Amino acid sequence: MLRDIWNVFIAFTRSSNLGFGGGPATIPLMQNEVVKRYHWLTDEEFADALAVGNALPAPIATKMAAMIGYRVAGLPGALMGLLGTVAPTLIVVVVLSHFIMLYAHSTVLRAMLKAVRPVVVILIAQTAVSMGKKSFPRKATWGIAAAAAILLYLHVHPAIIIVAAMIFGYFAFSPRNHQKS
Amino acid sequence: MLHNLWNLFVGFFRASNFGFGGGAVFIPLMQVEVVNRFHWLTNAQFADAVAAANALPGPVGTKIPGYVGYQIAGWPGALVGVLASIGPTALIVILLGGVLMKYANSPKLRAMLQGVRPVVVVLIAKTSLQMAMTSFSGWVTWAIALAAVIILYYTKVHPAVLIVSSLVLGLLVFR
After folding, report:
1. Which member of B116, B148, B168 has the closest CB to residue A166?
2. Which residues of A81-96 are buried (b: 16+ CB within 10 A; e: fewer)?
3. Domain coordinates of chain B in residue numbers?
4. ipTM of the shown complex
5. Which residues of chain B have a CB within 8 Å of the CB of A17?
6. Which controlled-vocabulary keywords does the entry list (chain B) (predicted)?
7. What's the gap in Å between the CA of B81 and the closest CA on chain A?
8. B3: which residues sit within 8 A by CB, 6+ positions away?
9. Confidence category of residue A179, pLDDT binned at 50, 70, 90
10. Structure pTM?
């Protein structure tokens, strides 16, 4: 049991913290640990777990760690999976945050940040473009985008727009199973 | 202090648990809470948080709450932010994982997520525009952005490399 808990911790520490590019980049690494190395799940079970993870909001890596950790070693397994996923980068990011606050008025830090901000703008814009290429398969999706832009301009909270878009999708994009004959 | 912790919990709970559709969606949702609603950081400072998050491995949805939470309320702030972000769905998958597996591939759910995706694109685009307004001053910053576009388009350089090299460049150019 203790050994399982430890293995869960190690597996998720490794897969999450060697995966650059946010949660989704860690999925193949996670599959390697969970399916190939420790044989906790089969490929099919891993795909099912991933489908559940993708259906819910919030970071994918922590949902997978909680779900699989719990299956392997109960609640302690879930907690250690989460800890392994989150703790290492949390510590580093807090240390970075601390130094940025501490040296907020230093000319050196300001010079560095001034150069990194345009790069961040481009990285985020690039995400919008690459997601955009996959998000508009039909005309109605353009309508949703236009409506979202207008609502944002009117300062409607994004959470409300997201829920409204899901309801719209449910009625507009669900396949019609019971066609009238 | 307690008031700050509560606000951090509410802000990151909302940002993360309405974030359908992958890592990038957290950035605009968190920006709305951190910059527009609670005024914890300016747009430029929020860009620094995103830079720190992009330069490190691991989930974006926990690094930004850690970074911002720490600036607002120290270690307790960082922990509350992360917990608000990942706690609810961790509980849901533990308690309901088996039940959810039956519905995860349902066409109706996929239809709902298809409805959300255009919204996510608009949100992300809006965030990058807002950040651009405070990030460009003088031709050098435009040149850096242009260089970033070219490098991202023509090479497979990892974003973390771009972030670190732009920090070094800033040190040489803007001091």
Report:
1. B116
2. bbbbbbbbbbebbbeb
3. 2-135, 137-175
4. 0.88
5. 57-58
6. Cell membrane, Membrane, Transmembrane, Transmembrane helix
7. 11
8. none
9. very low
10. 0.90
